[in-house]
Structure formats: C-alpha cells, structure tokens
Write a structure and sequence with these properties.
The protein is mainly β. About 5% of the residues lie in helices and about 35% in strands. Strand 43 and strand 44 form a beta hairpin. The longest helix is centred in the last third of the chain and has 8 residues. The radius of gyration is 24 Å and the shape is globular.
Length: about 625
C-alpha cells in the first residue's frame, strides 16, 4: 500500500481545571512513539510526576494555586528524556473549570437591502495546522441570523470566516460577500494540508466581492447578483394557507418575503484556495460544477441547484485532493482537484447527467463520507446512497434515494471492510445497513415515514459490535438486524462522543453528554455543560467535536449564547486506556474535515473501536 501524505502532529498538551484545586493535564500518544514510552510531567520547570507506559496519557495535578502554570510533557525511553518530541501548555490564571476559553471578535450587526437588521452567531468550525507547528488552529464560520435554508426566500447577511489560535489570537477574517448566500447548504469549507507543506489551506466557493484575509477583493467588487424578487399577493397567500392569519395576528409588522428575494440565480461562481495562515487568496478559478440551466437540478429557483457538498479524499492513495460537489435531489456532479501550492488542477469530474450515470441521480445526502471501501489504497466517496470510485467513475448505486444521515466505519472486529448505516426520506426504504464496498444490503427496516435521523455507536458491552437505531428502526438493532432493545425513546440521534474513558461511546445532544445504561435499557445524563448553546436548530450540534488535543478522547467546541467566545471542553475523567490519537487514522481525520458539511455528522474511525476489542494490540493501539 502507498504511504499517505499526512500532517505531523505535536504532543497536543492541554491543561484544564477539574476543580478549584485540581488541574487535569493530558497529551497525545503518537503512532511514532515506542510502545514502552513513558512521560515526565513538569510544572513551572519542576518535575511533578512520572507517567508509566501502562497508564493513560494524563495526569491529575493537585495544584491549588489559582495563578497561571506552565506544564511541559517530556517523553522518556530507557530512562532518558526525549526533548525533541516534548510539548507544553500554559494554564492561564483563573482558568475556568472544565474547558479552554477562546475569546472571539464578533462581527458588527448588518442591514439587508430591505431594511432588516441581522446579527452574527459563531457557527460551524473546522481545524487545521495553519503554521506547521503541530498544533491545530480553529477556522470558524460566522452565520448571520437571517441565514436561510434553500427552500426559503429572503436576503441573508454575508458569511464570514475567522481563524483563531486556542489562545484566542485572531489570525484573519474572510468575507464571502453578498453574492454567496448564507445557509447550511451553501457554504461548505474544506480545511486541510493539500500540498504537503505542513500547513493547512482553506478551500471555499466564492464569488465577485469576496474579500480575502489580506483585504483583497476577488473579481468585481460592484457586482450584485441578488434577486429583488416579485411581490407576493397576501390575499391570495391567505386563501391558500389560512394559518398565515395566525402569523399576522401574532406579528402586526409581518410582511411576506418577495418571491425569489435574496436568491442568487445568475452570476459568476468561483473556487478559491486560501492560505490557512494569512487568509490570502492564493488561487481562484471558475467553480465546477457550474449552475448552468437551473431546471437541470430540479427547479428554477436555485433550491436544488445550490445544494453543495465537499470533501477531501486521497484519490491516488498518497496525496489529498479536494472534491467540490453540487446537487443530490436530482442531478449530482462531483469535481476533484489537486493543489500543488501554486496551481489548482482538475483531476476528474463525475456527472450523473452523463449517459450511463443516470442511476447515480437523486442519491445524495445532506452530507457525505470518504473511505477506501474497496481496499485498493485509494479513497472512494460515499455520496449518500451511491459511491464514486477514486478514478471518478460510478462504483455502485443502491437507488434508495436521498437521506439526511449516515454512518460509515467497521461495525465489528471480524466484519470484512466497512459498513454503512443510513436513513432514507423516500417514505419507503426507512433505514438500511449495507456493505460500503458493494452497496449490498445486510438488513433493512422499511418505513412509510420520512426517516430523517439515525445513529450508530457502540453503547452496549453485552451486544457484539456497534448498535444502530433511527426514528423508525423499531428499537436498537445489532449488526445482524436483531433487536437489542425495542425501546429507544431516550436515545439521541444527533451526535456521539468518546468522553468518559471507557471503550463505549457516549451520546451528545444539545448541551448534554448521556450514557446508555444497558441494564435498565435507558440513556442517562452523564455531564451537562452550562453557559453554552448549540448550532443548526434541531441538529443541535456543537461547532465541532473530535480528538483535537490531549489523549484519544474527543473534545467538544461550543459557543456561548452571545458568541463572545468559544469553549473547548476537555474530558477530565480518568481512563485506563492509552491509544494513539484518532487524528492519525485517515478515515477519522477525513470525517473531521467533512463534519461541517451541511448536516453535521459525528466522527468515525477506520477500524472497529469498542468493548469487543477486549485485551489486544490492534494497529498500534494498546488495550488493557
């Protein structure tokens, strides 16, 4: 197998207060580390602990002084400290309990052409090492309060992107401008080191009037492609929908939005590669796939044509490519590009409109997954209910149509390859469990309902492999389709997180981490986060979650209600297990890259992870 070009990570040391007089310090165990490596912990230059290879990579420091403290982690082999792979972190004075506070520079309010005001909220985020120092920075999307789903008319404010260090230092701001509409389906942003120089780039769809991190305007600064729209006949609207009267009674200032107002039906569309360090636009080309004839996508008002997805995939098995996508309800087009630091070169374009590809139309999700499902060393793109091979050819299509959610990983230690658990909105196919390489259905629970959510996670140690469920799955199911528990009303279908230190996964919904009690068959709150809020309505997801710093557990990045800061919550539970950071697993790392795409989905690794691993050594991961 070829060796993939991957980022080089540092120790990822972080320290948070567990209580008023205890500090929880945690760091990464890297794949390059010898199995017998141990660690020394220093506070303010004084050694305070030795952590042996038989323990997890954390230390609970009973250090009550509220002043700041400098922590340093030094690896040790055969009694000798390896200073070249050490790491450090400064705990600020009066640091809060349980999280890292990251202050933000909130954008000013704005006004639309129709005179309506809007505010900004910190929304989805991604991570990347923008300066090559082995630590991640945060790339944050600012969403205006008038952002819209594609089905809705109305002006939106400009979408902004910032880059922050974990200290709160702001590196740059990009303004996508008035010609890129705001909403979950419009503004997919890819953050990854595409050219192998050790520093992440940021790739986004742009247009005339986009302002890069250096203040340079892309294209025509005066262009305005937003539709003014056609006035709506209120009387006709009321006759069509009597419920509108209730809206008018509650809000005397209510006025209907003009038809197509704020939509962008024409005009230039670009694809831009930005420097992750400075926000400077390094290369801009025409966006492919172009919108062309709107009706080719399913309607003439840019609802279907402006459904965008994106991902990063190792299409040649060695170098990462960025793939920009358009459409999934009808026509679907994927365009793959390679970035060499100077030029953005097309690798291939897949178009379901082309003869022979008709079966791939209408199969896309509100998200996508990337994995080497056929074992050739190169990644495929799981585009909802179909798959595109690494060479840009159709691999298979199930014909089950559009869905909102799907989960791809290895569902049990002895299952060959990868599997997919997905839900379907065609009021026919319900939820299905399939072979990721062939599309072959392993089992299916059909339903006449629109099944919009589903979840897969190993939450029950008494059942073999991962468990899976959906709104209409008739309970928690196992890998053979059997029912583990017919009652799953207490289980969330939004996000999942490794949090408390055992091998099972916890569930994350809004501000609560919950744990499944397999003895009682119900989910119970484990930890509640105060003073924060979540994003994207009923999706109720954090800005991002993943193994961002510290040991193998995942961190959760929330925003405060006023978006004055982000809070990176770090698990302070002890763990007896020591694993390499999940970020060194290709499938997991790419699931982080695509987490912000449309409807956020939780991370998954490219190997089975759960209590059925028992006591073993698996791909360099040490299990006690």
């Amino acid at each position: 197998m070829p060796t993939r070009q991957m980022e080089k990570l540092g120790r990822g040391v972080v320290a948070v207060r567990k209580s008023a007089n205890q500090v929880f310090v945690t760091w990464r165990y890297l794949s390059a580390d010898p199995m017998k490596i141990s660690f020394n912990v220093y506070r303010n230059g004084k050694k305070v602990a030795s952590v042996p290879a038989s323990q997890g990579t954390y230390y609970l420091d009973s250090y009550g002084d509220i002043s700041s403290a400098d922590y340093q982690i030094k690896p040790v082999m055969k009694g000798k400290e390896l200073t070249e792979t050490c790491g450090k972190y400064t705990l600020p004075a009066n640091a809060p309990i349980g999280y890292v506070d990251i202050p933000l520079v909130k954008p000013a309010d704005g006004v639309t052409p129709s005179g309506d005001t809007y505010q900004y909220n910190a929304n989805d985020a991604s991570i990347g090492d923008v300066d090559g120092d082995g630590s991640y920075e945060i790339i944050l999307k600012w969403d205006p309060s008038n952002s819209h789903d594609n089905a809705h008319d109305g002006y939106t404010g400009n979408v902004l992107f910032d880059c922050y260090r974990l200290t709160g230092e702001k590196l740059w701001r990009i303004d996508l401008g008035r010609n890129v509409r705001a909403g979950a389906h419009y503004t997919q942003f890819m953050v990854y080191d595409l050219d192998g120089d050790g520093c992440s780039e940021v790739v986004m769809k742009t247009s005339d009037g986009t302002i890069d991190g250096k203040g340079k305007i892309i294209g025509d600064a005066n262009a305005d492609y937003r539709e003014v729209g056609e006035p709506v006949d209120v009387e006709k609207l009321v006759n069509k929908d009597p419920n509108i009267n209730k809206v008018i009674e509650k809000n005397k200032d209510w006025k209907p939005t003009n038809k197509n107002q704020g939509r962008i039906l024409t005009g230039n569309e670009y694809l831009t590669v930005f420097s992750g360090l400075t926000g400077e636009a390094m290369k801009t080309i025409d966006y492919v796939p172009a919108r062309g004839n709107l009706s080719d996508w399913g309607d003439n008002r840019a609802n279907r044509s402006d459904r965008f997805l994106a991902c990063v995939a190792y299409l040649d098995g060695v170098h990462p490519s960025v793939v920009m996508c358009r459409g999934y309800y009808t026509r679907a087009v994927l365009a793959a590009y390679d970035w060499d630091g100077k030029e953005l070169k097309s690798r291939w374009v897949f178009d379901s409109k082309q003869p022979g590809n008709e079966g791939w139309s209408g199969q896309g999700n509100h998200n996508l997954r990337v994995a080497d499902v056929d074992g050739d060393g190169c990644d495929e793109i799981i585009y909802g209910q179909c798959a595109i091979d690494n060479n840009g050819k159709g691999l298979y299509t199930t014909g089950m149509g559009h869905g909102d959610a799907m989960h791809l990983t290895k569902f049990a230690p002895d299952m060959e390859g990868f599997q997919i658990w997905g839900c379907h909105e065609n009021k026919k196919d319900g939820t299905s469990f399939r072979n990721a390489a062939t599309g072959e259905v392993i089992f299916q629970e059909k339903s006449s309902d629109d099944v919009g959510r589903c979840m897969a996670a190993d939450i029950d140690p008494t059942n073999y492999g991962l468990e899976m469920w959906s709104w209409q799955s008739k309970g928690i199911r196992n890998i053979k389709g059997g029912t583990v528990n017919p009652n799953m009303r207490t289980l969330s279908v939004n996000m999942a997180v490794w949090w408390d230190g055992d091998l099972m996964r916890e569930l994350l919904d809004k501000a609560t981490v919950s744990k499944y009690d397999w003895k009682e068959g119900v989910c119970k709150p484990l930890q509640q986060f105060e003073g924060i809020t979540w994003n994207n309505g009923t999706k109720a997801n954090p800005s991002i979650q993943g193994d961002i710093v510290g040991d193998w557990r995942e961190e959760i990045l929330f925003r405060t209600p006023d978006s004055s800061s982000l809070r990176l919550y770090v698990s302070t539970y002890p763990t007896e297990y020591r694993f390499h950071t999940f970020m060194e697993d290709p499938l997991y790392r790419l699931s982080i890259v695509t987490q912000n795409v449309a409807y956020n989905q939780p991370t998954h690794p490219g190997f089975y992870f759960g209590p059925d691993l028992k006591k073993c050594l698996f791909r360099g991961y040490l299990f006690k």
